[in-house]
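Input (Dipeptidase):
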Amino acid sequence: MFKRPLITFIAAIAATSAAIACTSLIATPGATADNSVMITYAADSHNLYGELYSKPAADHAPGAMREVRDWDTGRYLGEIPEISHTYATVGNMNEHGLAISESTWGGHEELVDTTGIIDYGSLIYITLERAKTAREAIKVMTDLVNKYGYASSGESFSIADDKEAWIMELIGKGSKEKGAVWVARRIPDGMISGHANHPRIHKFPLDDPETLYSPDVIDFARKQGYYKGKDKDFDFSLAYAVTDFGALRGCDARVWSFFNRHASGMDKYLQWINEGDTEAVMPLWVKPDSALTVRDMQWAMRDHFEDTPFDMTQDIGAGPFKVPYRWRPMTFTVDGTEYTHERAIATQQTGFTFVAQLRDQVPAPMKGILWFGVDDANTCVYVPIYCCVTEVPYCYAHGNGDMLTLSWDAAFWVHNYVANQAYNRYSQMIPDIRRVQNSLEDAMEQAVAETEAQVMSLPADRQRRELSMFSDYWANRATREFKQLGDYLFVKYLDGNIKKETSPGVFKRTPEGQCEYPQFGGYSDEYFRSVANDAGERLKVKQPEKIK
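Output:
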């Protein structure tokens, strides 16, 4: 068993980065039904506003500089020279179908470079402006941090193009030494992978062209006292990260749940998740039992450990309405014993989420589709945003509301309107949400196929225009229909009651036109039993002695 002090991981990482507790899943060609590459992302933060970033392609004069601001805080970090031409970006994808996502894992605090000017968020968005492929992106990213210093803590990146997907894990060298130590591995075709706030690369081959690493990744660990063994036995994750209960149960468990959903035999890795047994370290990738679709990846992002030992709907914390959410703080103490809530992939504090679908057998304007959603992945609608879009749909646009300014035109606020009602009475409301969510996503999936067939033979500029209008239409339609869903939920479940309906979405009236008397939703049997056990003597129905 691997033993380290049980540092409260969630508390430790909460002090570092706003968008820190994120999840990214990966599926490669051969593991996907359409032979595309797919990576996902949930940008989870309690103060991140969900919007779609965008920057047009541009030419830059010699001597032009690019300002760098910390992605999480907006704090000015410095400036770097601009390159002659930068590519257009939309969200975490660029015009060439390159996509990058991340998850933060902290690691040794002394390795944060307080003098560096490239934070992890800026590293992603600068790279999207400068690279066309995943391998180019790895070089751009490592060159940037080596030259300008890395201003963040340990990070895992999913880096993918239309042919391959990589995981790169990177951490700085502290303020006394510029640059970073890192390792990157290509996920083989036919495999799925993922990372969730803990580095997933353990031992790696030293002479494999599909594995890249900084020349000093092992020597630096020795110099710092993190590792003493032979090169061939070096484990990046154990050397540079803090592997404790929170890292395993709060982080690797999310990846395990994704694997378990799509591959047989995953129970054997529960020894790693629950006990840190290094003889049962979960592999970086596994082969799925069947090929995954875009919808599979969307549903993987909606996971709450359902039907696993960590199922969040099955303990008393779920309450009478089987709510698979737990409010922060993550850990709590009762009678001197520390406990934790489960941390699932789907969580309430998501700013934005996506499934990037990258394809190599289609025209350039449709190489990449960013299936984009805002707020909780479980209750969002994933909308297809093509890599060629020239304008962000208004419902996702910067300046349309913010974290302190409600806007009914903003998809972020509309989706929160729906989700936050469901958090109170989840088991009752989620079927209504699924009805609208599935209807929209089914319709968009069909519309994508039909529209691409129609525009396939058009000139590239016409394709870009048509696909941009297509993305704009569906983004605004989904937002509009979810606002209607939020209004419907508010009316239907008012005051703890449930209005009767003649059909879904149509409320029942009496012959005189009045509201039909509502149903009482009540509570679950488990809830009634817990109340009886806690306050049964006081609440028990009795006949007073004098009336008998």
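Residues 501-547 form one domain.
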